[in-house]
């Protein structure tokens, strides 16, 4: 098949492109930048902005399936910027699928679309969207997910995947942030509860996208649904953080602050950053405080049942690969 991957130059998008190419599919990547490594493996590249409807339609032309991975991630920023990338961009992708007669759309969502600030332990896809959101990213991703799922028709089959905390070699977001803050001594445990979280190794997340696409058709078991995607190996949050730090040969996090203090600090920081238009991200936000002091792990039995997802790379193997990459051996 011929596949379009929006955000193909990003961390997850790159992994999806590589897996598609490896199995013999023709792949076109749509990103704002140019990525020589994609050209090296034979992927076609189209440059453009996801908020440009005409550019998205041109990129989608002639494709059989679209993997819509491109998004604006992060914990801080203007709502309008997140909306333009995550909602308007998704509107453009859906419109391009309809205009170009593309029958399958796989959307990369996030478990944060159902996070209400409280513990989620073994949650499944019946979890509702919360009434309010503490950050623009989960809010706009929830709007985009609902848009995708509501666009299902006899001509367009859709599915939304919610990979949780993607990490691994090549990570340009989660792992670098943890390592940089750890080296600078800026990480603090929030609370003393052993809150379990689940994450997903990047190759497992990419594999889930291909499996879902292969099962996706109008009226199929996958069509019109959202699925949580994890490694299915929940461990205490700060143990995972410390294992990532250990892979980078950084000392573990030992100092602790209370969840209440972290939430108050987040509220104060948000106020200062907004009032004085401070550049960059605040050191703490209310969303981050709640994320780092609650349990969030999910039941992935629906993904196993409906499209055969099984995480092939274990937590242990993934951490070993990450260590090799961070040491330079895997680069």
Key structural traits:
single chain, 331 residues, alpha/beta, Rossmann fold, seven-stranded parallel beta sheet, two-stranded parallel sheet, 42% helix, 17% strand, globular
Describe the structure.
With 331 residues, this protein is of the alpha/beta class. The protein has a domain at 2-167 and 199-231 and 296-312: NAD(P)-binding Rossmann-like Domain (Rossmann fold). Helices cover 42% and strands 17% of the residues. It is built from 12 helices and 15 strands. It has helices at 11-22, 36-40, 53-60, 79-100, 136-150, 174-183, 202-215, 237-247, 259-275, 286-291, 301-307, 315-327, and strands spanning 2-6, 26-31, 44-47, 65-68, 104-108, 120-123, 157-163, 166-167, 189-190, 196-197, 200-201, 225-229, 235-236, 256-257, 296-298. The strands form 5 sheets. It has a 7-stranded parallel sheet with strand order 3-2-1-4-5-7-12, with helices on both faces. The chain has a two-stranded parallel sheet with strand order 6-15. A two-stranded parallel ribbon has the order 8-11. Helix 4 (79-100) links the parallel strand 4 (65-68) and strand 5. Helix 1 packs across helix 7 (202-215), helix 4 (79-100) packs parallel to helix 5 (136-150) and helix 8 (237-247) runs parallel beside helix 12.
């Amino acid at each position: 098949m011929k596949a379009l991957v929006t955000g193909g130059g990003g961390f997850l998008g790159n992994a999806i492109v590589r897996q598609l190419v490896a199995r013999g599919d023709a792949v076109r990547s749509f990103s704002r930048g140019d990525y020589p490594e994609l050209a090296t493996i034979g992927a076609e590249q189209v440059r453009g902005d996801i908020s440009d409807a005409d550019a998205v339609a041109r990129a989608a032309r002639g494709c059989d399936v679209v993997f819509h991975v491109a998004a604006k991630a992060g914990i801080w920023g203007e709502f309008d910027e997140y909306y333009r990338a995550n909602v308007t961009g998704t509107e453009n992708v859906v419109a391009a699928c309809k205009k170009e007669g593309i029958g399958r759309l796989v959307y990369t969502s996030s478990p944060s679309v159902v996070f209400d600030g409280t513990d989620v332990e073994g949650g499944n896809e019946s979890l509702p969207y919360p009434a309010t959101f503490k950050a623009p990213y989960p809010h706009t991703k929830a709007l985009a997910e609902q848009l995708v799922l509501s666009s299902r028709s006899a001509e367009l089959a859709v599915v939304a995947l919610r990979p949780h905390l993607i990490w691994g070699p090549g990570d340009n977001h989660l792992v670098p942030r943890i390592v940089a803050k750890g080296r600078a001594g800026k990480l603090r445990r929030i609370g003393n509860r052993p809150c379990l979280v689940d994450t997903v190794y990047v190759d497992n997340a990419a594999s889930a996208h291909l499996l879902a696409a292969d099962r996706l058709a109008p009226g199929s078991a996958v069509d019109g649904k959202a699925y949580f995607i994890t490694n299915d190996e929940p461990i205490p949050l700060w143990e995972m953080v410390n294992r990532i730090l250990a892979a980078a040969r950084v000392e573990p996090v030992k100092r602790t602050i209370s969840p209440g203090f972290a939430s108050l600090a987040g509220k104060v920081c948000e106020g200062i950053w907004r009032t004085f238009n401070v550049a960059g991200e605040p050191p703490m936000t209310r969303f981050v405080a709640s994320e780092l002091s609650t349990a969030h792990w999910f039941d992935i039995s629906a993904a196993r049942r409906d499209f055969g997802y099984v995480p092939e790379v274990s937590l242990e193997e993934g951490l070993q690969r990450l260590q090799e990459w961070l040491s330079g051996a895997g680069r």
